[in-house]
């Protein structure tokens, strides 16, 4: 019976603490100035004036809105800083493009186009056959050889096409592609930073192009290895495939360069604005929820804009310059990491909003916390009846429970903020582990309670060991 009484008393204490917190917050939101006596016809009355709170609410709202608006830019800057400045990450992201059939087909078509421009296969085969007939062949043989000029030329073209296709589909091409990426891991950044040493270049007029020179050299070596001596006539190629044209690209380059430079600190500035908005608010628990909701909406809009950007980019690239399927694949490769980060931050914001609601001074969360506290108390009492107790450690855990919960929150926040890349799985598992740790602390703690020894004098009592 004593144990049941202790459980009921603990539950009541938790309820009173929650109610006290709610009343304190309400009092803060309706802060008053000292009472001033007012005389009216000899009678005095007290006037209590409410302190205006709307400036603080307006400031908190402004800070949260700024933080939410900075969040999408911070996501892009963070992606540029982490993904595109890391050689291994860059290669891991873009090397798989070499195995995509659309990319392979595009490279084959462009490479064959360069070879056909530099080598007149029809003329070469015609000269070879004419040389044979000039050696002295009969009329029938000469006529037969003349008829073979067309098929011979087609056969050589098919032979070269087969050699190029086989090379592009081989592991050798993947190795050439990956090696080029590793030598210049900023090749994709070159689209925005105009790196003349990269395979991807941007002209002063805003034309984006891919260098074919390294690929043609590798193709020439592969054809020679297959015994196609005609490949000796393939000269060095200095050609760029123009894949897009935009007069605005130089301006975008500047903006993107600023975003990369800001990648290290802009995410923290966005977080600082959101946190400041919560701290200056009168009802911080409510402000925390609204800050999380604003961040979630910002990330949802960002995800939507990334999806719309795919359609706009694909439609803006001329099919004569780049097939739409290849354009979509290139955009998807670029946007996939940003989309993953956006979704992860969206999940984080939703989690923070839910946790803020559960921890807030609201009726339903207060009842849920009471149920959780009752469950932990029952588990603790059952363990103690069986001789399992945490002793002084449990008592210390109870007295330091606020500090320990704050430590768990800080560690979980640090994991989410510092570990890269941030993913929905990272956010969810961090939350799960944090909840498990808090549940363990709740069970381990041994609350210090007071029960009346008599009607006049309370004495301290610790839960029975």
Q: Structural class, judged by helices and strands?
A: mainly alpha
Order of helices and strands: HEEHHHHHHHHEEHEHHHHHHHHEE
Rg for CA atoms? 36 Å
Put simply, the count of helices is 18
- Unreliable parts: 31-50, 453-465
Shape: elongated
What is the mean predicted local confidence, pLDDT?
74
Terminal-residue CA separation: 15 Å
Number of strands: 7
Beta-strand content bin: 5-15%
Major sheet attributes:
3 strands, antiparallel
Helix content: 55-70%
Q: How many domain units? A: 2
Strand order of the largest sheet: 3-4-5
Provide a descriptive summary of the structure in words.
With 465 residues, this protein is mainly α. It folds into 2 domains: 1-29 and 283-465, no CATH class; 86-185 and 207-245, no CATH class. Helices cover 70% and strands 7% of the residues. It has 18 helices and 7 strands. Strands 3-4-5 form a 3-stranded antiparallel beta sheet. Strands 1-2 form a two-stranded antiparallel sheet. A two-stranded antiparallel ribbon has the order 6-7. Strand 1 and strand 2 form a beta hairpin. The radius of gyration is 36 Å and the shape is elongated.
